[in-house]
Specification:
Length: 515
Amino acid sequence: MRAIENGKNWISNTNSHESDVYFYAQLLRSCAAARDLAQARRVHRLILDSSHRQDRYLANIVVEMYGKCGSIEEARRAFESIEEPNTFSWNIMVAAYAQNGYIEDAKRFFHRIPFPNVISWNAMITLEAQSGNLDEAIALFTTAPFTDVVSWNAMISGYAHNGRVDEAVDLFDRMPMRNLISWNAVITACAHNGKLDQARVFLEQTPERDAVALNSMIVGYGQCKDLKQAKVCFDILPDPDIISWTSLVTAYAQAGHLEEARALFDSVRWLPNIVLWTAMLDAYSRHGHLDEARRFFDTMPERNVVSWTAMLAAYAEHWELEQARAIFNSMPESNAFSWTIMVEAYGKKGQLLEARMLFDRMPSRSLVSWTTMVAAYALNGHCLEALEVFGEMVMGDLWPDDVVFGGVLVACTHAGLVEQCRSYFVSMLLDYGIRASVEHYGCLIDVFARTGQLKSAEDLIRNMPFCEDQNLWNSLLGACKLQEDMKQGMRVLPELNPDDSSAYVLVSNLCKARA
């Protein structure tokens, strides 16, 4: 508020139009950086009361500000108030939708842009790739009227984000031109997906070895618990930044070396960085040291919503519901993630009434929130309620993903709803373009087996677009035993793994049931 009053006084004492616009722009960007919606609204009103109310440059920044503050409706109204929006205006509105999880709205808005430029296309390619819609990203990339190095970099990161590292590397090899971001993207793709030898080759070839690449290597080696190589990469850095220190502390913590992790932390604890402190807090909680995690949390010089949520997650993941509830109620601010953690915690304890009440009170719900509520009902046998929640989500224009469909299929399986399970499975493939996983097929196979449709279950296993899964054959044989179908069981026998002792137990049980 004081900044706004100072701004009013400063503006009233100047006669420069350009200076006024510059100062308003700075105020808007400050509100966006702080995610301060109340302050953002005050600045916006100040502009509306000034002679700059129709300034398109400021109007664009207002749209961007509301998007970063999480108020998509106000961003949309600000956009619609622009008399002649330019391509930059449209791109900002697309970005606002994307940042707030309104993927379908972002897509629809993109297709309405009168004259999309390379920035427009790159924004959509990145959005689709990072949302897991890689096929859509590929289609955009191959049909875009113009691409640049940013487009190629977005696709490399998209392939990596979806675990398709070989295709990321292949695309990198075909790039017409590369920049440092390209090299860092392919190094990160390999390092974060366990292909560290390949990542090391790229690291040696890169024309400029910077902290981003080396930090990615530290993370990769940490995931593989190769602390020696992680430390080697760290020592190469001439001036390790806070990300480097956090990555190394996390690497030691993931390997269970909490004392070494704490020693590293203590050597730089003077750094005023909440991310490093939260990483150490998470390390204690991951290894079940809840008392130490809480003592560490209580000594933090400052806390933000991430550190509060880390402490909340620590209690929730270890089934300490009372302590989790106390932390949640004490949080000075919360986000969709912290609310979702509590919904999940109640669901795991079987306290579905409390879970649903909390879910209904959530100020905003993400796709993860809806998925958590569906899973809570499904895993506790309240299958119709799970399907109702999914229906509410779809009616609310939120685009489902493979995870929430997994919860829906589990609900159908537990309730023995064969036709509904089949219908949701087909809808997932055709209506939403989601590629079915082994787990999705497993749900459909399971519901067939539970309801005595053993031949349908067998046919589905044989026709899956994957290598036949031994666990599915074992489950089918178990179903044959329950249904006392010796004939079907005999057809399954040749598919069993002869080295799997559990298969022999299943065969023995089938024979006993028949006898």
